[in-house]
Design goal:
Blueprint: E1 5-8, H1 19-27, E2 30-33, E3 37-41, H2 44-48, E4 59-62, H3 65-77, E5 87-90, H4 93-99, E6 109-112, H5 121-126, E7 131-136, H6 143-151, E8 154-159, E9 161-165, E10 178-181, H7 184-193, E11 203-207, H8 209-217, E12 222-226, H9 234-244
Parallel strand pairs: 1-2, 1-10, 4-5, 4-7, 5-6, 7-8, 10-11, 11-12
Antiparallel strand pairs: 3-9
Helix pairs in contact: 7-8
Length: 247
């Protein structure tokens, strides 16, 4: 069946030159963006219950822009001035670039991975006798603690925000040819909002092994998967599917 409408379960890209814009123009598609999940920060009181003393840590591991935002939000709320000497270990260039919102980049010690926490293994080992803080949400990819434990560094998790299901009730009578998911939480949100959801002719696109497993568990038929060797991005996977199903 031909694809005409797609719902992406993420915020709309800020840039008009995003791959989705090119996909939309090339195939004359209607592409909408709607976050199926959102994050809410924990209060300073809730964080204090974790008995974390920020002054104990010379190093902060940042795996996402949300982690950056909520680390600086909560330290400000708790009136803790983050020392200029603090070292930041950013999972990717995108996270490191976003860090500039809060610190003067050239005056800080910032270490950057290509796209995975594993990329920083050698750098972590250089500071193996120091303590590391990992700001996170209530949902943490197992690969992150697995990596840190494997390296055997002294690290502590600080849960500073939580993932929440967004209200999608206004979409109850709206139908799309393809629903695109990027996390297990997105799949969870779909069924919390629409417990009686039936897939029928709707195509499901899933990015990442965790999302694929969640979709399988929910008994959804997955028509589009990414990343793969041929389609490393979701837009490439969607385009390949569309090209193979033109009728």
């Amino acid at each position: 069946m031909k694809v005409k409408t797609i719902l992406i379960s993420q915020p709309e890209p800020a840039s008009e030159k995003s791959p989705y814009s090119r996909l939309k123009e090339k195939h004359k598609l209607k592409i909408d963006f709607r976050p199926f999940i959102h994050v809410e920060g924990l209060s300073a009181k809730e964080v204090r219950l974790q008995k974390i003393n920020f002054s104990d840590f010379d190093n902060v591991i940042l795996t996402s822009r949300n982690a950056v935002d909520h680390f600086f939000r909560i330290t400000q709320e708790m009136r803790y001035k983050v020392p200029d000497s603090t070292k930041y270990f950013c999972q990717s260039e995108a996270v490191a670039y976003y860090l500039q919102k809060y610190v003067i980049y050239r005056k800080r010690k910032i270490y950057v991975g290509e796209k995975s926490i594993d990329d920083l293994e050698d750098v972590f080992k250089k500071f193996g006798d120091e303590k590391f803080l990992l700001p996170s949400s209530d949902v943490l990819k197992p690969s992150i603690p697995d990596c840190l434990n494997k390296i055997n560094i002294d690290w502590t998790r600080a849960q500073l925000y939580k993932t929440m299901v967004s209200d999608l009730s206004d979409l109850r009578d709206v139908y799309y040819d393809v629903l695109v998911f990027f996390s297990p939480s997105g799949i969870e949100s779909l069924f919390k909002n629409f417990p009686d959801f039936e897939q029928n002719n709707t195509r499901i696109a899933a990015y990442g092994n965790g999302t694929v497993l969640a979709a399988d568990k929910a008994k959804l038929r997955i028509d589009i998967k990414a990343p793969t060797p041929d389609t490393p991005s979701m837009t490439m996977a969607i385009e390949k599917y569309i090209s193979n199903n033109v009728k």
